[in-house]
Design goal:
380 residues; mainly beta; Immunoglobulin-like; 4 domains; four-stranded antiparallel sheet; 28 strands
Length: 380
Protein backbone atom coordinates (compact mmCIF):
# COMPACT_ATOMS: atom_id res chain seq x y z
CA UNK A 1 0.00 0.00 0.00
CA UNK A 2 1.31 3.43 -0.94
CA UNK A 3 1.76 5.77 1.99
CA UNK A 4 2.40 9.49 2.41
CA UNK A 5 2.88 12.26 4.97
CA UNK A 6 0.64 15.27 5.56
CA UNK A 7 1.13 18.45 7.52
CA UNK A 8 -1.15 21.14 8.85
CA UNK A 9 -2.34 23.21 11.79
CA UNK A 10 -4.94 22.90 14.52
CA UNK A 11 -6.72 26.15 15.35
CA UNK A 12 -9.80 27.44 17.11
CA UNK A 13 -12.69 29.28 15.43
CA UNK A 14 -10.65 32.51 15.37
CA UNK A 15 -7.58 30.88 13.85
CA UNK A 16 -5.56 30.73 17.09
CA UNK A 17 -3.88 27.45 18.18
CA UNK A 18 -5.04 25.88 21.46
CA UNK A 19 -2.18 24.20 23.33
CA UNK A 20 -1.37 20.49 23.34
CA UNK A 21 -3.61 18.94 20.70
CA UNK A 22 -3.40 15.30 19.69
CA UNK A 23 -4.25 14.51 16.03
CA UNK A 24 -6.06 11.25 15.22
CA UNK A 25 -6.60 9.28 11.99
CA UNK A 26 -9.89 7.46 11.35
CA UNK A 27 -10.75 5.30 8.32
CA UNK A 28 -12.83 7.20 5.78
CA UNK A 29 -15.45 4.44 5.54
CA UNK A 30 -15.90 4.13 9.31
CA UNK A 31 -19.49 4.03 10.49
CA UNK A 32 -20.94 4.33 13.99
CA UNK A 33 -19.22 5.39 17.22
CA UNK A 34 -15.42 5.36 17.17
CA UNK A 35 -13.87 2.84 19.55
CA UNK A 36 -10.40 3.54 21.03
CA UNK A 37 -8.52 1.40 18.50
CA UNK A 38 -10.42 3.01 15.61
CA UNK A 39 -8.72 6.32 16.46
CA UNK A 40 -5.05 6.16 15.59
CA UNK A 41 -2.90 8.96 17.10
CA UNK A 42 -0.59 10.27 14.38
CA UNK A 43 0.85 13.55 15.71
CA UNK A 44 0.94 16.08 18.54
CA UNK A 45 0.93 19.80 17.80
CA UNK A 46 3.75 22.21 18.62
CA UNK A 47 3.07 25.53 20.45
CA UNK A 48 2.07 27.17 17.15
CA UNK A 49 -0.49 24.44 16.41
CA UNK A 50 1.57 22.80 13.65
CA UNK A 51 1.64 19.03 13.13
CA UNK A 52 3.14 16.51 10.72
CA UNK A 53 1.66 13.03 10.35
CA UNK A 54 3.81 10.42 8.61
CA UNK A 55 3.22 7.02 7.01
CA UNK A 56 -0.51 7.39 6.31
CA UNK A 57 -2.17 5.18 3.67
CA UNK A 58 -3.37 6.65 0.38
CA UNK A 59 -7.10 7.12 0.20
CA UNK A 60 -9.92 8.83 2.03
CA UNK A 61 -9.73 9.25 5.80
CA UNK A 62 -10.92 11.47 8.62
CA UNK A 63 -8.53 13.58 10.70
CA UNK A 64 -9.57 15.12 14.00
CA UNK A 65 -7.86 16.70 17.00
CA UNK A 66 -8.43 16.47 20.73
CA UNK A 67 -7.28 19.21 23.08
CA UNK A 68 -5.37 17.91 26.11
CA UNK A 69 -5.36 21.29 27.91
CA UNK A 70 -8.92 21.25 29.22
CA UNK A 71 -8.42 19.13 32.34
CA UNK A 72 -10.37 16.02 33.31
CA UNK A 73 -14.15 15.74 33.41
CA UNK A 74 -16.91 16.51 30.96
CA UNK A 75 -17.09 20.33 31.16
CA UNK A 76 -16.10 22.15 27.98
CA UNK A 77 -15.54 21.09 24.37
CA UNK A 78 -12.47 18.97 23.59
CA UNK A 79 -12.62 17.67 20.02
CA UNK A 80 -12.25 19.42 16.70
CA UNK A 81 -14.57 19.00 13.77
CA UNK A 82 -13.51 15.97 11.71
CA UNK A 83 -11.85 16.84 8.39
CA UNK A 84 -12.39 14.45 5.49
CA UNK A 85 -9.11 14.16 3.58
CA UNK A 86 -7.88 12.26 0.53
CA UNK A 87 -4.22 11.27 0.93
CA UNK A 88 -2.13 12.43 -0.76
CA UNK A 89 -3.96 15.77 -1.21
CA UNK A 90 -4.46 16.85 -4.82
CA UNK A 91 -2.61 20.07 -4.06
CA UNK A 92 0.34 20.33 -1.71
CA UNK A 93 -0.58 22.60 1.14
CA UNK A 94 -1.55 22.92 4.74
CA UNK A 95 -4.47 20.97 6.20
CA UNK A 96 -6.50 22.89 8.72
CA UNK A 97 -8.27 21.22 11.64
CA UNK A 98 -10.62 23.62 13.41
CA UNK A 99 -12.18 23.47 16.86
CA UNK A 100 -15.83 24.66 17.01
CA UNK A 101 -14.99 27.18 19.74
CA UNK A 102 -12.77 30.21 20.15
CA UNK A 103 -10.43 31.47 22.80
CA UNK A 104 -13.05 34.14 23.64
CA UNK A 105 -15.36 31.44 25.01
CA UNK A 106 -12.87 30.59 27.76
CA UNK A 107 -11.37 32.39 30.71
CA UNK A 108 -7.70 32.60 31.62
CA UNK A 109 -6.90 32.26 35.32
CA UNK A 110 -3.46 33.43 36.45
CA UNK A 111 -1.98 34.19 39.82
CA UNK A 112 0.80 33.80 42.32
CA UNK A 113 1.34 32.02 45.65
CA UNK A 114 3.16 33.70 48.53
CA UNK A 115 3.74 33.09 52.22
CA UNK A 116 1.17 35.00 54.27
CA UNK A 117 3.54 36.03 57.04
CA UNK A 118 6.74 36.71 55.09
CA UNK A 119 5.51 37.10 51.45
CA UNK A 120 8.02 34.41 50.50
CA UNK A 121 7.80 33.09 46.93
CA UNK A 122 6.42 29.53 47.14
CA UNK A 123 7.85 27.51 44.26
CA UNK A 124 6.58 24.12 43.13
CA UNK A 125 3.34 24.27 45.13
CA UNK A 126 0.37 22.43 43.69
CA UNK A 127 -2.57 24.63 42.60
CA UNK A 128 -5.95 23.01 41.92
CA UNK A 129 -9.02 24.34 40.08
CA UNK A 130 -12.18 22.24 40.54
CA UNK A 131 -15.94 22.45 40.11
CA UNK A 132 -17.20 22.73 43.73
CA UNK A 133 -20.69 21.50 42.79
CA UNK A 134 -19.41 17.95 42.19
CA UNK A 135 -16.71 17.35 44.82
CA UNK A 136 -17.16 13.58 44.90
CA UNK A 137 -18.12 12.87 41.29
CA UNK A 138 -15.94 10.48 39.37
CA UNK A 139 -16.00 12.76 36.31
CA UNK A 140 -15.64 16.09 38.13
CA UNK A 141 -13.95 18.87 36.21
CA UNK A 142 -10.43 19.31 37.52
CA UNK A 143 -7.25 21.10 36.49
CA UNK A 144 -3.91 20.97 38.26
CA UNK A 145 -0.66 22.84 37.86
CA UNK A 146 2.34 23.90 39.98
CA UNK A 147 3.86 27.27 40.66
CA UNK A 148 7.01 28.14 38.70
CA UNK A 149 10.29 29.59 39.98
CA UNK A 150 8.60 32.97 40.50
CA UNK A 151 5.70 31.42 42.41
CA UNK A 152 3.33 32.09 39.48
CA UNK A 153 0.71 29.76 37.99
CA UNK A 154 -1.67 29.78 35.01
CA UNK A 155 -4.73 27.93 33.74
CA UNK A 156 -4.99 29.21 30.13
CA UNK A 157 -8.25 27.54 28.96
CA UNK A 158 -10.99 27.54 31.63
CA UNK A 159 -14.67 27.16 30.61
CA UNK A 160 -17.03 29.70 32.22
CA UNK A 161 -18.59 28.61 35.50
CA UNK A 162 -18.14 28.37 39.25
CA UNK A 163 -14.84 27.09 40.64
CA UNK A 164 -12.86 26.52 43.78
CA UNK A 165 -9.22 27.58 43.43
CA UNK A 166 -6.90 26.25 46.11
CA UNK A 167 -3.43 25.36 47.29
CA UNK A 168 -3.41 22.08 49.29
CA UNK A 169 -1.62 22.19 52.64
CA UNK A 170 1.87 20.84 53.29
CA UNK A 171 3.75 19.89 56.45
CA UNK A 172 4.84 23.50 56.93
CA UNK A 173 1.93 25.40 55.42
CA UNK A 174 -1.84 25.48 55.82
CA UNK A 175 -4.17 24.99 52.86
CA UNK A 176 -5.58 28.14 51.26
CA UNK A 177 -7.96 29.17 48.52
CA UNK A 178 -11.27 30.74 47.63
CA UNK A 179 -14.29 30.45 45.35
CA UNK A 180 -14.51 31.91 41.86
CA UNK A 181 -18.25 32.33 41.37
CA UNK A 182 -19.58 33.18 37.94
CA UNK A 183 -16.26 33.22 36.09
CA UNK A 184 -17.27 34.64 32.69
CA UNK A 185 -15.91 33.92 29.23
CA UNK A 186 -13.05 36.20 28.28
CA UNK A 187 -12.11 36.98 31.88
CA UNK A 188 -8.40 37.08 32.72
CA UNK A 189 -8.18 37.51 36.50
CA UNK A 190 -4.79 37.58 38.18
CA UNK A 191 -5.16 36.27 41.71
CA UNK A 192 -2.91 36.13 44.71
CA UNK A 193 -3.08 33.28 47.21
CA UNK A 194 -1.41 33.78 50.59
CA UNK A 195 -0.54 30.63 52.50
CA UNK A 196 -0.05 30.78 56.28
CA UNK A 197 2.51 28.76 58.19
CA UNK A 198 1.15 25.78 60.06
CA UNK A 199 1.11 26.60 63.80
CA UNK A 200 3.13 24.35 66.12
CA UNK A 201 1.46 22.07 68.62
CA UNK A 202 -2.00 20.54 68.45
CA UNK A 203 -2.89 16.90 67.96
CA UNK A 204 -0.80 15.38 65.20
CA UNK A 205 -0.54 11.83 63.95
CA UNK A 206 1.98 9.45 62.42
CA UNK A 207 1.35 6.79 59.79
CA UNK A 208 3.21 3.73 58.55
CA UNK A 209 2.83 2.38 54.99
CA UNK A 210 4.20 -1.12 54.37
CA UNK A 211 4.82 -1.98 50.69
CA UNK A 212 4.91 -5.65 49.69
CA UNK A 213 4.53 -7.61 46.46
CA UNK A 214 1.98 -10.36 45.82
CA UNK A 215 4.15 -12.89 47.70
CA UNK A 216 4.40 -10.69 50.79
CA UNK A 217 8.06 -9.78 50.15
CA UNK A 218 9.05 -6.14 50.88
CA UNK A 219 9.25 -3.68 47.98
CA UNK A 220 12.18 -1.41 48.88
CA UNK A 221 12.43 1.97 47.17
CA UNK A 222 8.69 2.25 46.50
CA UNK A 223 7.42 5.81 46.31
CA UNK A 224 4.62 6.37 48.84
CA UNK A 225 2.24 9.33 48.92
CA UNK A 226 0.04 9.99 51.95
CA UNK A 227 -3.10 11.93 51.01
CA UNK A 228 -5.42 13.80 53.35
CA UNK A 229 -8.27 16.27 52.84
CA UNK A 230 -6.83 19.56 51.53
CA UNK A 231 -3.36 18.35 52.38
CA UNK A 232 -0.45 17.60 50.07
CA UNK A 233 2.78 15.89 51.13
CA UNK A 234 5.92 15.18 49.14
CA UNK A 235 6.29 11.44 48.44
CA UNK A 236 8.40 9.19 50.67
CA UNK A 237 10.68 6.32 49.70
CA UNK A 238 10.20 2.98 51.42
CA UNK A 239 13.30 1.55 53.11
CA UNK A 240 14.85 -1.88 52.63
CA UNK A 241 12.03 -3.33 54.74
CA UNK A 242 9.44 -1.79 52.39
CA UNK A 243 8.25 0.59 55.11
CA UNK A 244 7.67 4.34 54.78
CA UNK A 245 6.87 6.43 57.86
CA UNK A 246 5.18 9.83 57.86
CA UNK A 247 4.79 11.95 60.97
CA UNK A 248 3.05 15.23 61.78
CA UNK A 249 -0.15 14.36 59.90
CA UNK A 250 -3.47 16.21 60.33
CA UNK A 251 -6.68 14.56 61.50
CA UNK A 252 -7.61 11.33 59.60
CA UNK A 253 -8.94 9.85 57.33
CA UNK A 254 -6.13 9.34 54.82
CA UNK A 255 -5.26 7.40 51.72
CA UNK A 256 -1.88 5.94 50.79
CA UNK A 257 -0.67 5.34 47.23
CA UNK A 258 2.42 3.28 46.40
CA UNK A 259 4.32 3.26 43.08
CA UNK A 260 7.44 1.64 41.73
CA UNK A 261 8.56 0.91 38.17
CA UNK A 262 7.80 -2.69 37.27
CA UNK A 263 4.89 -2.87 39.71
CA UNK A 264 1.18 -2.11 39.51
CA UNK A 265 0.26 1.02 41.47
CA UNK A 266 -1.69 0.33 44.68
CA UNK A 267 -3.85 2.59 46.85
CA UNK A 268 -5.66 2.07 50.12
CA UNK A 269 -7.73 4.32 52.47
CA UNK A 270 -6.97 4.07 56.17
CA UNK A 271 -7.30 5.88 59.50
CA UNK A 272 -10.98 6.15 60.46
CA UNK A 273 -12.05 9.63 61.67
CA UNK A 274 -11.28 10.07 65.37
CA UNK A 275 -8.74 7.24 65.42
CA UNK A 276 -5.01 7.16 64.96
CA UNK A 277 -3.98 6.22 61.41
CA UNK A 278 -1.90 3.18 62.38
CA UNK A 279 -0.46 1.09 59.55
CA UNK A 280 -1.61 0.48 55.99
CA UNK A 281 -0.46 -2.40 53.76
CA UNK A 282 0.02 -1.70 50.06
CA UNK A 283 0.33 -4.69 47.70
CA UNK A 284 2.31 -3.66 44.61
CA UNK A 285 1.95 -6.59 42.23
CA UNK A 286 4.91 -7.26 39.95
CA UNK A 287 4.48 -6.61 36.24
CA UNK A 288 5.86 -8.67 33.38
CA UNK A 289 7.38 -6.95 30.35
CA UNK A 290 6.22 -8.27 27.00
CA UNK A 291 7.21 -7.23 23.50
CA UNK A 292 4.60 -7.02 20.76
CA UNK A 293 5.33 -6.75 17.03
CA UNK A 294 2.52 -5.95 14.61
CA UNK A 295 3.12 -7.19 11.05
CA UNK A 296 1.48 -7.18 7.67
CA UNK A 297 -0.32 -10.54 7.48
CA UNK A 298 0.55 -10.93 3.80
CA UNK A 299 4.21 -9.94 3.71
CA UNK A 300 5.33 -10.30 7.31
CA UNK A 301 6.77 -6.77 7.19
CA UNK A 302 6.59 -4.93 10.55
CA UNK A 303 4.05 -2.13 10.93
CA UNK A 304 6.27 0.21 12.90
CA UNK A 305 3.61 2.62 14.10
CA UNK A 306 0.82 0.21 14.92
CA UNK A 307 -1.32 1.09 17.92
CA UNK A 308 -1.09 -1.74 20.44
CA UNK A 309 -3.25 -2.27 23.52
CA UNK A 310 -2.96 -5.17 25.96
CA UNK A 311 -5.94 -5.84 28.21
CA UNK A 312 -4.85 -7.53 31.45
CA UNK A 313 -6.16 -8.03 34.96
CA UNK A 314 -4.77 -4.68 36.11
CA UNK A 315 -6.20 -2.60 33.25
CA UNK A 316 -5.03 -1.74 29.73
CA UNK A 317 -1.43 -1.01 28.68
CA UNK A 318 -1.05 1.08 25.51
CA UNK A 319 1.77 2.49 23.38
CA UNK A 320 0.30 5.88 22.40
CA UNK A 321 3.31 7.95 23.48
CA UNK A 322 5.75 5.59 21.76
CA UNK A 323 4.10 5.78 18.34
CA UNK A 324 4.28 9.59 18.44
CA UNK A 325 8.08 9.54 18.63
CA UNK A 326 10.16 10.62 15.62
CA UNK A 327 10.62 7.91 12.94
CA UNK A 328 14.29 7.47 13.84
CA UNK A 329 13.31 6.46 17.39
CA UNK A 330 11.18 3.51 16.25
CA UNK A 331 12.95 0.15 16.64
CA UNK A 332 13.94 -1.81 13.48
CA UNK A 333 11.43 -4.60 14.11
CA UNK A 334 8.69 -2.08 14.97
CA UNK A 335 8.12 -3.77 18.34
CA UNK A 336 6.85 -2.16 21.53
CA UNK A 337 7.45 -3.24 25.13
CA UNK A 338 4.51 -3.01 27.52
CA UNK A 339 4.19 -3.92 31.21
CA UNK A 340 1.22 -6.09 32.24
CA UNK A 341 0.14 -8.33 35.09
CA UNK A 342 1.02 -11.99 34.48
CA UNK A 343 -1.81 -14.24 33.41
CA UNK A 344 -4.28 -14.32 30.58
CA UNK A 345 -4.16 -11.21 28.39
CA UNK A 346 -5.70 -10.01 25.13
CA UNK A 347 -3.46 -8.18 22.66
CA UNK A 348 -5.17 -5.84 20.20
CA UNK A 349 -3.57 -3.89 17.37
CA UNK A 350 -4.63 -1.40 14.70
CA UNK A 351 -2.85 0.46 11.94
CA UNK A 352 -4.06 2.99 9.33
CA UNK A 353 -5.11 1.13 6.19
CA UNK A 354 -5.45 -2.24 7.97
CA UNK A 355 -8.19 -4.07 9.82
CA UNK A 356 -7.97 -4.49 13.58
CA UNK A 357 -6.55 -7.72 15.00
CA UNK A 358 -6.81 -9.55 18.30
CA UNK A 359 -4.53 -12.17 19.87
CA UNK A 360 -5.17 -13.97 23.20
CA UNK A 361 -1.99 -14.90 25.05
CA UNK A 362 -0.66 -16.21 28.35
CA UNK A 363 2.05 -14.15 30.07
CA UNK A 364 4.33 -15.43 32.83
CA UNK A 365 6.09 -13.24 35.39
CA UNK A 366 9.35 -13.65 33.46
CA UNK A 367 7.67 -12.34 30.32
CA UNK A 368 8.35 -14.11 27.06
CA UNK A 369 11.73 -14.82 25.41
CA UNK A 370 10.19 -14.10 22.01
CA UNK A 371 7.91 -11.22 21.03
CA UNK A 372 4.22 -11.80 20.47
CA UNK A 373 3.56 -11.31 16.75
CA UNK A 374 0.11 -10.08 15.76
CA UNK A 375 -0.81 -10.04 12.06
CA UNK A 376 -3.04 -7.37 10.50
CA UNK A 377 -4.79 -7.67 7.14
CA UNK A 378 -4.49 -4.83 4.66
CA UNK A 379 -7.78 -3.28 3.56
CA UNK A 380 -8.60 -3.45 -0.09
Amino acid sequence: MDRASVWGRVVDADGDPPPRSLVYWLAGDHRGPALPLDLHPVARTDPAGNFCAVDLPHGECLLAADCEAFGSGARGARSSEALRVVIPPEEAGELLLRYPFSRKQFARVRGFVRGKDDLRVLRGHKVVLVDPATPNAGEKFRMETRTDREGDFEFPWVPPGNYALGVPGTLGRMDAGFLLNGLPAGAEPRLGIQVARRPPGGTRHAAVARCVDETGAPVPGAEVSILATNFHLPPLLAGEDGVARQGDLPVPPYAAVGRKPGHLEAGQPFGAPGEGPGEVRLVLRRLATVRVVAVDGGTGEPLRRARVAIEHEGGVAENIEEILRPPAAVTPDGGFELAVLPGRVTIRAAYPGYGKAELPAEVSLDGSPDPFVIALTERR
